[in-house]
Design a protein that fits this description.
2 domains; Tumour Suppressor Smad4; 314 residues; 17 strands; alpha+beta; Rossmann fold; six-stranded antiparallel beta barrel
Length: 314
């Protein structure tokens, strides 16, 4: 039987709480959507395979239940051979993860009932998608799409440590790991080019290639970013030391960091970044540490249909 709606559930999201509350989520879905098929993910990248097959089978709406990493995997399933499979297929989001930063740029409520109302009542809007080619952790070249923010430098190291230590991915855990990582972290020498223009050479602490506004469990890294303008806001933090970071790092929470003289925001549709002096610069995409520099980031303007309210964040 062909279903127009496919629900893809990451039962391990939110540290396994999604599995425990699946009955509640399923009942909520049934009250808003007449017929749907659901499947649980069983391993990394399984959500990508499930979404891709569903769209090939004619599914019109793919709903993800999980956090930012789950939505990233599902969104990658909308593509094959670097092209979108069906431009009219739509992504819906039921937030159920420890990291749900994307929904803040889409004005999707975190609560189950209100999030389901967005899926059934909100318009399907076209958002930009980021595409990046990078060196994977296994050493080879890899292509990947991302929805929200790609970040190299300190953020990549923090996500790696959070994952390795199996810390709870809530805001307080992330901030604690951020501070403890910063104690030992050394700024990286990176060459950066935006739309063919070389930026000043130097040591960088953070390089955030932002499609959305918020990352790192609520940090407003790119307050001027929009998901439908065809441009990245690349936010670069240069030369911060530990004490300086302690004095000014809190500004990431409200977006006021962009006025600091060591912070630069450059808008463009293509960003290239290379490490110098054999620096090992880690990269994270939508909250998952997947590789390292060198990397090339490109924007795909208004490429993916998603349920949300882009117009209200302009």
């Amino acid at each position: 039987m062909r279903f127009k709606t496919q629900v893809i559930v990451n039962p391990e999201s939110n540290r396994g709480r999604t599995r425990k509350r699946w009955g509640e989520i399923r009942d909520g879905l049934k009250s808003f959507i007449r017929e749907f098929k659901f499947e649980f993910t069983e391993k990394p990248l399984h959500a990508t395979d499930l979404a891709r097959q569903a769209i090939k089978d004619g599914t019109e709406l793919v709903i993800g239940v999980g956090g930012d990493g789950t939505m990233n995997e599902i969104a990658n399933g909308f593509f094959e051979d670097r092209r979108i499979i069906n431009p009219e297929a739509t992504l819906g989001v039921v937030p159920s993860g420890t990291g749900c930063d994307l929904i803040k740029s889409l004005n999707i409520p975190a609560g189950l009932k209100d999030a389901l109302k967005v899926i059934t009542e909100a318009p399907s809007v076209r958002m930009d998608v980021g595409k990046v080619r990078f060196r994977s952790n296994a050493g080879g070249e890899e292509d990947r799409f991302f929805l929200n923010v790609a970040d190299f430098g300190l953020g990549g190291e923090v996500v790696r440590r959070v994952t390795e230590r199996r810390l709870q991915r809530k805001a307080s855990s992330y901030v604690r790991c951020l501070v403890t990582t910063m104690v030992q972290y050394k700024n990286k020498r990176v060459r950066i080019r935006v739309d063919g223009k070389d930026l000043p050479e130097g040591e960088y602490l953070i390089g955030a290639v932002a499609n959305g506004k918020i990352f790192g469990k609520g940090m407003k890294v790119a307050p001027g970013a929009r998901l439908d303008d065809g441009l990245f806001d690349t936010v670069l933090v240069r030369g911060f030391r530990f004490l300086e970071f302690c004095r000014h790092g809190w500004k990431l929470m409200n977006g006021s960091h962009i006025t600091h003289p060591k912070v630069t925001v450059v808008r463009g549709s293509k960003v290239e970044a290379w490490p110098e002096d054999d620096e090992d610069v880690l990269l994270e995409l939508d909250g998952d540490q997947l590789g390292r520099l060198p990397a090339t980031f490109e924007i795909l303007p208004r490429n993916l249909l998603i349920k949300g309210f882009l117009q209200s964040v302009r």
